[in-house]
């Protein structure tokens, strides 16, 4: 019967939240919290988990939240329900990033199954990829995925790509000189025992060709310096951009990023976000033709690589808030 709302059970929604936490986030900071109220799930930014040096405006935190929101939408859809959602539904609560409502039952389309099946297999890969080029039809599919979420994904020819990577390396070097950067990066990397941050095994080697700005996460002093490795000499690098640059656009960019990453994973591609050039305003301005009016939100390296393991996630009890309160956690 059309129009009948039969919401999923709370258990199903809890499961959808668990799935959403598989989303990527800046330094695996997992800067999100969720609250289930009936058939609605509220998605909050956790202010304590914003990286104050690297992300002073909270742009990358909201990109991470957007990635979680897209994953949540997909999980609800895969549970056999439609959903609708609002971004920043309450002007008085800026940390309430989205409210999503599961609505009527709906058959699960094969395309939804396929994309959702990619969620646990998507990982950031900071190792060399094969020298095989990514087919144009696959790149088209990734562009289409970004477009579905209201963003633009641009690829470049070799000259444009090399120029982008030069800027990215310059940004990487400048960022490393910022006061507090090393301390903040050390806080979020190098531990094998924490349920967040980038564990030592996920930290890639530097590129021996000094072309790709592999993020210089900090391991223990005992294991540094890491030996370099030869990365693919012709990497596929894409630029994700949005029409505007407001908070709502950062959430949009995050949703588009996750749709692109999952689509790439479905195609068997390895992926690595590159955000250093976006973190330095003077470089970010140079990434996109100014007359286009677009704002660059992320660079993305894609290719064929070996399988990487799953980085840790915080237990649900830490991210799922009890109904009605914001300070304690649900168990
Ligand atoms: C906004 C944002 C920026 C990121 N920037 C980088 C980056 O510059 N370099 C990098 O290696 N990974 C980057 N990542 C990937 C995260 O480090 C990664 O998602 C996180 O460590 C969790 O690991 P996973 O993607 O394997 O689940 C970024 C992710 C997001 C969402």
Characterize the structure shown.
With 331 residues, this protein is of the alpha+beta class. The protein folds into two domains: 10-121 and 312-321, NADH Oxidase (3-Layer(aba) Sandwich), CATH 3.40.109; 136-303, NADH Oxidase, CATH 3.40.109.10. The chain has helices at residues 10-20, 59-78, 110-117, 136-148, 158-176, 181-187, 247-266, 276-279, 281-284, 316-319; strands at residues 32-37, 40-45, 81-87, 96-105, 152-155, 236-242, 270-274, 295-303, 320-321. It has a five-stranded mixed sheet. The radius of gyration is 19 Å and the shape is globular. Mean pLDDT is 94; it is low at 326-331. Residues 24-28, 60, 63-64, 67, 123-124, 126, 198, 215, 272-276, 311 line the site of flavin mononucleotide (FMN).
What secondary-structure arrangement, pairings included, does this model have?
Blueprint: H1 10-20, E1 32-37, E2 40-45, H2 59-78, E3 81-87, E4 96-105, H3 110-117, H4 136-148, E5 152-155, H5 158-176, H6 181-187, E6 236-242, H7 247-266, E7 270-274, H8 276-279, H9 281-284, E8 295-303, H10 316-319, E9 320-321
Parallel strand pairs: 1-9
Antiparallel strand pairs: 1-2, 2-4, 3-4, 5-6, 6-8, 7-8
Helix pairs in contact: 1-2, 2-3, 2-7, 3-7, 4-7
Bound molecules: flavin mononucleotide (FMN).
Flavin mononucleotide binds at residues 24-28, 60, 63-64, 67, 123-124, 126, 198, 215, 272-276, 311.
